[in-house]
Design a protein that fits this description.
Two copies of one chain form a homodimer. By secondary structure, the first copy, chain A, is mainly α. Chain A has two domains: 92 residues; 376 residues, Neurolysin, domain 3. Chain A has a three-stranded mixed β-sheet, sandwiched between helices. In chain A, a hairpin with a 2-residue loop joins β2 and β3. At the A-B interface, α1 and α2 of A face α1 and α2 of B.
């Protein structure tokens, strides 16, 4: 066995254990009775310990040295795999076990406090725990920065978005931030002039919503022999590439929420399913970062399923599913409903136009907190100021402000930028797909996603982590991330 | 940390990993899409490797020596835990890794061949694979016999029934075998004289069966905050003590099958739930062998739920659930249906009276094969001879004979005796419970299992593996296993 083969065997074990943990997480969120929580925590904690031991084993350093010395003999996929193995190993070994444990404990305690502080609108109650999490996160960021040769913020970002660098992202976000307020004004004016769309009359039974969701998942290309649709409190895409499990929740007063949610998660699922089957359980076989992952869900949901071709396909199916008829059920009316813009306080409820403002705000604030330029105690004020600047709204309380998202309280710092990077990437990839395969919209109008999915599979899914996200995007679209494409998409959709 | 504490920590990890594997198995049997099978096998195989490494770690020998030297300071539960840890370690280390792997591979290959050979009625097709499995099993039995100081057959039996010894079981089985043919003749005569019971008219919708099953599970004491009921091809009790998951399958032509199946699995589930909570994830906290486990399911199903008090409680609920009325739905008619005796070829379809004959036959034959006294090629003939002797029936083909059960083909040798040991233990425990708590039948007539379950929890469930099964039974009932109690139960139920 060569050193490289030894590494492959170790990572295969590591990834199989992580897959096992993934199934346990899915189970916990969908079917586990509440009383099973204690035992499940223990199972997951032990799996995490075993994974940590596997990925920080003392023999790995020498194996990497030996494998890299003989890397010339490897094919490009194996070389990329070796590169990604080392990247993961650097992340895993950058922090000592004590810091990893302290961070996990602090994040769990803070999240629990936050779960009560949010409904109570009591930022002061969670502030001490947030300070603790931030302090340890900054310590971890410093340690990873040293190990990886990055800035502390980039070291955090790199965990979710390999190769992502804030110095390249910030100007793109600033460009968008400058564009959005004026654009939003135009959109609101246009919308007011056009009058409100009609609301289809409910209720919309859950069973009918689910059946329609499955019908549309199948149209996108979801293979139910290799996946499931279930219910959970918070929708997600879990499972493993050969058994992708998406979830949703239903609101009987509004069928579009669950439907668009299902299509969004189906986009994630198609990415997982399309990853290179020859490289399962190896780092190079995994999705290339959270921004690209989000781009696949947003490409399906935002670029395609909130567009006119898909609305034409879906409108009669929806009318049939819910026994609806009349003008409210016409494709153009449903399309106007799906693309309604309305500035608001809550990120997860935001539309495509205002969503980036929420993300830019969070990215700026977390960057300042990691740099030590913003104290957590000053967060509510800074948050509210930024909301006025970006969306012209002043949150009436912290529940609708800095208490709304779990991320910081749960220790996920450096994650937020990936949402809007994903939205921009989605626009750029879809534009390139349309240029390469002009018949895509006509096919989608008939419920046939095959031409689009074939292009995505070839240019995105099947590449796994062979290249950096930036290289992949450049190969697929002819240029690196260009906010102009996203802005052009917004202008076309909301002003034309 | 003392050596004993070190061992506890290692076994806690081992058991948490085994629990994780248990949840993955449940998922595979209930909700996993077929295409997820390959990935799941890999996850389970890796978990098994990690478990094997944990339970055969080279440091364990010294730790056991050190822990046993200081065992005087331990309380009785910890002492018993140490004894059980060593027992498991002896089993785990008795076989070298090559034999373990060869046996697993041979069993998997043989099972796959058997899955086709059974419907094809082609014993010759599976014979080579069966020879391979038997050969390796005999090798493993020899190795374990050496390590444990047991006979080869006992070494296999001990895997499922710790402390079980064929020299004590065989006379009990011979006694039953001598009793059954004559008794069966009397029962059949009595049944013929009484005339056939009435069959309630179906169909019985699955949803109504499931709702009634849940109602009866709740009556037994099943806590749905700590468990689930689902569907699977083969009913089983899985999950973990704080999240016990039972399954069933439904036949819309016969509601009693699923219902009695659910009650059977609920008996298993109550045992798991009642295990000592302070000893979760430790050997002493586990169920005390498969015979005692089967005794808990058979006590609920056979002793109680096929008895008159329960029939009185259940009959009106069943009539209501399926909209039935008239004499077919009376308690005494349903009871006669539930206790119908009919010699047949298939073990899993057998009634309480003929079931032991199927088990005794298998026990005798597998013992002879392990001893080398019966060649697998002679199995069909030996099987059919024994069927004539024990039940007076000649199987028309091997599908209804030696091809029917998965056990030997899958490598589970030494398991069969536990079914009938369980049936006898159930009768003995229930008789003791009735003697100690005379109000049990009256309570069950009202759907109240609490008095029975309190006795079982105290005398069986909460003892975990503190004592041997024989000691536990002696403490709970005043004597070791006594086939007279089971025979008395049969006489009372079928002849009085």
């Amino acid at each position: 066995m060569t050193a490289y083969q030894d590494l492959e065997a170790r990572f295969r074990r590591l990834y199989a254990l992580q897959e096992a943990a993934g199934v346990l997480h899915w189970d916990m969120s969908t079917v586990m009775p509440e009383g099973g929580g204690g035992a499940r925590s223990e199972q997951l904690a032990v799996l995490e310990v075993v994974c940590h031991e596997t990925s920080t084993d003392g023999e790995l350093g020498d194996l990497f040295a030996a494998a890299e010395a003989e890397a010339g003999a490897l094919d490009p996929w194996a070389q990329a795999n070796l590169r990604e193995m080392r990247r993961e190993w650097r992340h895993a070994t950058a922090l000592d076990a004590g810091l990893v444990e302290a961070l996990a404990k602090a994040a769990m305690a803070c999240e629990m406090t936050w779960r009560k502080a949010r409904p109570d609108n009591d930022f002061a109650a969670v502030l001490p725990a947030l300070k603790e999490v931030l302090g340890l996160t900054r310590e971890a960021a410093e340690a990873k920065a040293d190990a990886l040769g990055l800035s502390p913020y980039d070291a955090l970002l790199d965990q979710y978005e390999p190769g992502g660098r804030i110095d390249r992202i910030a100007p793109v976000f600033d460009d968008l931030a400058a564009f959005l307020p004026g654009f939003l004004g135009e959109v609101m004016e246009r919308q007011a002039a056009a009058g409100a769309p009609l609301a289809p009359e409910g209720p919309f039974p859950e069973a009918a919503q689910e059946a329609l969701g499955r019908r549309l998942m199948a149209a996108v290309g979801f293979d139910f022999d290799h996946g499931r649709l279930d219910r959970s409190l918070h929708p997600f895409c879990g499972g493993v590439p050969d058994d992708v499990r998406i979830t949703t929740r239903y609101d009987e007063a509004d069928f579009a929420k669950a439907l668009m949610g299902v299509l969004h998660e189906t986009g994630h699922a198609m990415y997982e399913r399309g990853l290179p089957a020859n490289w399962r359980l190896q780092p190079v076989g995994q999705a290339r970062g959270m921004a690209l992952h989000e781009s696949q869900s947003l490409l399906v949901e935002m670029q395609v399923c909130r567009g006119p071709a898909f609305a034409g396909f879906m409108a009669p199916l929806a009318a049939e599913a819910f026994g609806g008829s009349g003008p409210a059920w016409q494709a153009d009316n449903l399309l106007r409903l799906a693309n309604r813009v309305e500035p608001g306080f809550i990120r997860v409820d935001a539309d495509e136009v205002t969503y980036p403002a929420h993300v830019i705000l969070r990215t700026r604030l977390e960057r300042a907190m990691i740099a030590g330029d913003l104290a957590p105690g000053d967060l509510p004020g800074a948050w509210n100021e930024a909301m006025v600047e970006l969306l012209g709204l002043t949150p009436p309380d912290d529940r609708l402000g800095c208490l709304q998202d779990i991320h910081w309280y749960d220790g996920a710092w450096g994650y937020f930028p990936t949402y809007t990077l994903g939205a921009m990437t989605a626009a750029q990839l879809y534009a390139a797909a349309l240029a390469a395969v002009p018949e895509i919209p006509e096919a989608i109008g008939k419920g046939d996603f095959a031409p689009l999915m074939a292009w995505l599979k070839e240019n995105v899914h099947a590449k796994g982590s062979l290249r950096s996200a930036e290289e992949l995007l450049t190969e697929a679209t002819g240029r690196p991330l260009d906010p102009g494409v996203f802005k052009a998409h917004l202008r076309r959709r909301y002003l034309d």
